[in-house]
Write a structure and sequence with these properties.
Layout (H helix, E strand, L loop, with lengths): L21 E13 L2 E7 L11 E6 L6 E6 L8 E7 L5 H6 L7 E9 L12 E7 L4 H7 L2 H6 L2 E8 L7 H9 L8 E7 L12 H7 L1 H6 L8 E7 L1 H13 L13 E5 L2
Parallel strand pairs: 7-8, 7-10, 8-9, 10-11
Antiparallel strand pairs: 1-2, 1-6, 2-5, 3-4, 3-6
């Protein structure tokens, strides 16, 4: 999730009487790989816990005027920093405050993590497909660095679709995979770039690539409900398209607490 998730909605932190609702942390690193994309890291609140796939609520602004937004956590669960991917939204209230930030500046972080796009939502076994557009790759980067991913599944296919090649999270994906020795030889990364030609990348929408069989050919794997698990995170058009295609192939979501074959999260 990012500033696109719930535009115009302020998200005050919960107050449950168990202590401060949030902590004040610091920006420790910022990188701008593309004009509208920022990848940044913060210090981590004491005792802050999360499961790969969760998001954190980040707050900017003074006093009662704090603007809160949900951002998926891209860092490994045991990392001393928290990593996030941010897409600029010129008219966004959070964006206006974020644009002024630099390393060393404060940022508020809710002391709890949230979300349901976790490995527990899909049944163990088979090849796990992680399909994302844009900053939707963030929770999957965290999962790739988690030992549970490799213990639960035979292999992983990562599909990341962006408009421009500079927006690909190649370095983050590679670093996460390299951190897990058991991932060696068990993962295939398929980049997709839709608005320019990029060497080694496919160049159409994910739904189009699935219908044509091109995506499976590039992955070297069939997306088959008997041998695959599917997690999808990204813009709602892609999410709806892939869910419809997956349903036709027999992928069913979890029910009543039981894991299924597919889990999705859409945002805009």
């Amino acid at each position: 999730m990012n500033d696109l998730a719930h535009p115009g909605i302020l998200m005050p932190p919960p107050r449950d009487g168990l202590g401060p609702a949030h902590t004040v942390e610091r920006i420790v690193a910022m990188r701008r790989p593309a004009p509208d994309l920022v990848r940044f890291e913060t210090t981590r609140p004491p005792q802050f816990r999360f499961t790969p796939g969760h998001y954190a609520r980040l707050g900017l602004g003074p006093g009662e005027a704090i603007v809160w937004r949900p951002y998926s956590i891209a860092s490994p669960a045991g990392c001393e920093r928290l990593a996030f991917h941010f897409t600029r939204v010129p008219a966004g209230a959070f964006n206006a405050l974020f644009e002024k930030l630099a390393p060393g500046d404060p940022i508020r972080i809710d002391r709890r993590s949230f979300g349901f796009l976790t490995l527990a939502q899909v049944a163990p076994g088979g090849v796990l497909w992680l399909v994302a557009t844009g900053t939707g790759i963030a929770p999957f980067v965290s999962m790739l660095a988690d030992g549970a991913t490799w213990a639960r599944h035979d292999g992983v296919v990562v599909v990341h679709s962006v408009r421009h090649a500079a927006e690909l999270a190649t370095a983050e994906i590679e670093a996460a995979i390299a951190s897990r020795g058991e991932a060696h030889g068990r993962v295939r990364v398929v980049p997709v770039v839709t608005r320019e030609r990029a060497e080694g990348a496919l160049d159409a929408r994910i739904g189009t690539l699935l219908r044509a069989g091109t995506l499976e050919s590039a992955a070297g794997q069939a997306l088959d409900a008997t041998r695959s698990r599917l997690m999808v995170c990204g813009n709602p058009d892609m999410d709806a398209d892939v869910r419809a295609l997956a349903r036709e192939r027999g992928f069913e979501p979890g029910r009543r607490g039981l894991p299924g074959k597919i889990a999705t999260e859409g945002y805009w």
